[in-house]
Amino acid sequence: MNVSAVPGVVRVLSTAVVAVVPVCGMNAQSTLDASSAMLPPDCYLRQEVVPYPSLREADVMWERRVWRVVDLGQPQNAAWRAPTGHVGGCYSLFAIIRNGLLLEGAITAFDAGPAGKDDAFQRTMDPDALVELLDGPEGVQESEATRYMIKEDWIFDKQRGTMDVRIIGLAPMREVRGEDGELRGHALLFWLHFPECRPLFARWLAFRDVDGTDHSFEELFAARRFRGTILKVGNAMYRSTDEYKIGLDALLEAEGVREQLFRLHFDLWNY
Questions:
Q1: Pick from 15, 47, 84, 166: CA 20 to 30 A from residue 5's CA?
Q2: Rounded to an integer, what distance in angstroms lies between the CA atom of residue 105 and that of residue 99?
Q3: How far is CA 260 from CA 7, 218, 251, 254, 264, in A?
Q4: Rounded to an integer, what distance in angstroms lies between the CA atom of residue 240 and that of residue 101?
Q5: Is the CB of residue 177 less than 8 Å from the CB of residue 184?
Q6: Cross-strand bridge partners of residue 145
Q7: Confidence (pTM)
Q8: What does residue 138 show for φ and ψ, rounded to 5 degrees?
Q9: Chain segment 161-215, per-residue pLDDT in tens
């Protein structure tokens, strides 16, 4: 397993926190304030992050890196747009990320490169460029961030006999429209190192069960209460499925990869 691919992770998969100075100059209307009278008080949960179980490299029997796209237009992903269970609502995932970057300085945005393919968490975004992107006159509107890219590792731990899925990175994507207003695609904005985001996500409500139990965004990710389409898997060439398949064939190929992962999960468990 390539545990050295993420800065600060050495042999054991654990949370790595990167210190960052808060960025100033954010529009006041873009901030989130847990003490604000406009915010339902139980939107701010103050939950603690549950550490991942320790994982020794020697216990990794099998691992595969997967990239998937989460479309907020899917009903299963509605909580990412705006939590349910409150009159007036709480905040979307994008609003919480923007607040964490620009106001709290709790998380770090990593440059994805000109083609949006750099997911190595090596280069942090320029602070001025980040403010312009998220809070400038032409900045990304919440309604435009309709997709997210997830980078994750599927790991079979032979010691515990379990298949773990560890999210490594999260990247919001912005709609790209032509002059005629037609949707042309989605542009990846930046990457977030997910272990660093967990404390931030644990503080904010994502959804409420019918029995009244509140769940944070951290719990949403941990329980994998979302649906995404696999875009790329860690094969020998790290090719995207749409690089060797097109249209419907690419979608079917991605679904085939997903079925292979779940089938392998049960095969390894039985082994």
A1: 47
A2: 8
A3: 29, 27, 14, 10, 6
A4: 29
A5: yes
A6: 174
A7: 0.74
A8: -105, 20
A9: 777 889 999 999 999 999 898 999 999 999 999 999 999 999 998 887 777 788 8
